[in-house]
Amino acid sequence: MSLTRKLLREMELTDEAIGRILAAHHEAVDALTLQRDDALAAAADHEQTVAERDVLRTEAAAHHAEAERLRTELEDFRQQVHQERTEASRRAALHEALLHAGANEQAIPLLAQAVRTSEEDWAGAVLLDAQHTLAPVIREYAGFFSSPVPLPTERITPPLHPTGTLTHEDLKAMTAEEINQNWLQVRSALGQT
Predict the structure, then answer these.
(1) Residue 123 scores a pLDDT above 80
(2) pLDDT band at 95 (very low <50, low <70, confident <90, very high)
(3) Using CA of residue 97, residue 103, residue 109, residue 111, what is the dihedral sign?
(4) How far apart are alpha carbons 156 and 20 in whole angstroms?
(5) Burial group, residue 114, by CB count within 10 angstroms (0-12, 13-18, 19+)
(6) Whole-number Å distance between alpha carbons of 130 and 100
(7) pTM above 0.85, yes or no
(8) Burial class (CB in 10 A: 0-12, 13-18, 19+), 98
């Protein structure tokens, strides 16, 4: 039922009261209409915001998945680099151990392939017990190993000038051939002057 002048007259209201009631009613309806329009606009904005949020969530999930993939890839790469460095350090340590054990340097790459090690034999890149680890290879390929044999040599004594240390006057009196023959003493005498 709508509010009309006829209805208000039937209630026996004065024309002035009817005018004021209708004016207040129109104001209330206009205000409610504005509130309704604002609410509809806000609802539309909300729906758009929700749609944008859903798109951003989807994009964020995709970026998160990509970041996780890249993080995993980076970690795999780091592990690979660490493993390659450890293996290179272990090969160098094994090379040094074989060399120290008396292996022929030309045969070390082949002998290194014959050495069997496990993780228990290593502390990082350090071979824990080289003698124990290399013993089977030394037994099997004994021909490639030798121990150093010290050779005796005669004691060498440097020649001395018959008069002892050379003086500046001795140097002036010497010929070029004598200077060449006694070069160490000449050099020592020149350093002192």
Answers:
(1) yes
(2) very high
(3) negative
(4) 136
(5) middle
(6) 10
(7) no
(8) buried
